[in-house]
Amino acid sequence: MGADLPPDISLILDEAVLRRAFGGPTVMRAQLSRLVDLTLTPTSVVQVLPFDHGGHALVGGTLTLMTLDNGACVAYEESISTGTLLEDLAAVSARQRAYDLLRACALSPSDTSTFIRSLMEVLPDECHT
User: Which of 8, 42, 69, 92 is most buried, judging by how many CB atoms fall within 10 Å of its CB?
Assistant: First the structure.
C-alpha cells in the first residue's frame, strides 16, 4: 500500500454510542451526519450493532485489528483504564473471529445509514433543549 493512500477501515458501532448525546443536538447531528458519509466509501464501512442483538464477546471496550505492511496481523484491545497489544496468532485469530461474528449480526451499511438518519431526525432543535 502506498504511503499516501488512506487505510481501509471497517467499524462496528454499538447502538449505545449513537444514542448517548454529547455536545448538544447540533454537535450530535454533525457527528451523525459524518458517520452517514462514511457508511460505505471505497476505504470505509460503518455498521451498527443494534440493541436487540444483546450481549456479545467484544462488549466493554474497543478492538482494533490491524494488518501491518509486512503482512503481520495484530490486535489492540482498550478499555477505560488499560490497553493491550496482542501479537500472538491464536489470540489475534480469536479476536478476528469475534469481530466477524459481530459484523455478520450488524446492520448492513445501507441499513446503518437509514438508522443513523432516523436518529438525526428525532434530535431536538438546539433552541428547544
Answer: 92
| Cα gap 26→13, rounded to integer Å | 20
- Mean pLDDT across the chain, nearest whole number? 90
Q: Collapsing DSSP states into helix, strand and coil, what is residue 101?
A: helix
Beta-carbon count within 10 A of 89 CB? 11
Which residues, 6+ apart, have CB-to-CB distance to 50 below 8 Å?
15, 106, 107, 115
CA 105 – CA 40 distance, rounded (Å): 17
Over residues 35-51, the pLDDT tens digits come to 999 999 999 999 999 99
CB 18 within 8 A of CB 119: yes
